[in-house]
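protien #1 (seq + structre)
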Amino acid sequence: MQAMWQIITKPDILIYLKASFPVSTGRRKLNWLEKDFAEQLRRLAHAREHANLIIDTDDLTPDDVLKKTLDFLKENLT
């Protein structure tokens, strides 16, 4: 179900963290095939379409992602 994220919770702000197949599988030591990754993207498509912020994390450190998130929240919640 594409809108599962809306059923589980009703977020005030939705932040979508994007990562490529090689980065995703490398970070989490996943043994996914590209078709598994594509299925995950399909399942998350609705959330991505409704995200307030999309962060491409491929070239970012966790601290970079945090900074982008906090900057966005500061700009949009004040």
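ok now protien #2
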Amino acid sequence: MNSMLLRRIAPIESSPLESADTPIPEPGPGEIRLRVRCCAICRTDLHVIEGDLRQAQMPIVPGHQVVGAVDALGPSSTRLR
């Protein structure tokens, strides 16, 4: 799966995001996996990229405003299909 990955905090003007192949995650108990059709980067993501907000673990794939379809259910996932 191709993602935009952040490995280091830096000003957005320095292009800190890089294209990278990442493994397709498997959903855990009570989780679902979405096949993302599109994803937006918002100002909060820019704050994370530039280090204004503390990020616990690197690297990260920024973006939390997604449109997609459920394509896998983890164990005990019954609410969404």
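The two ends are 22 Å apart (CA to CA).
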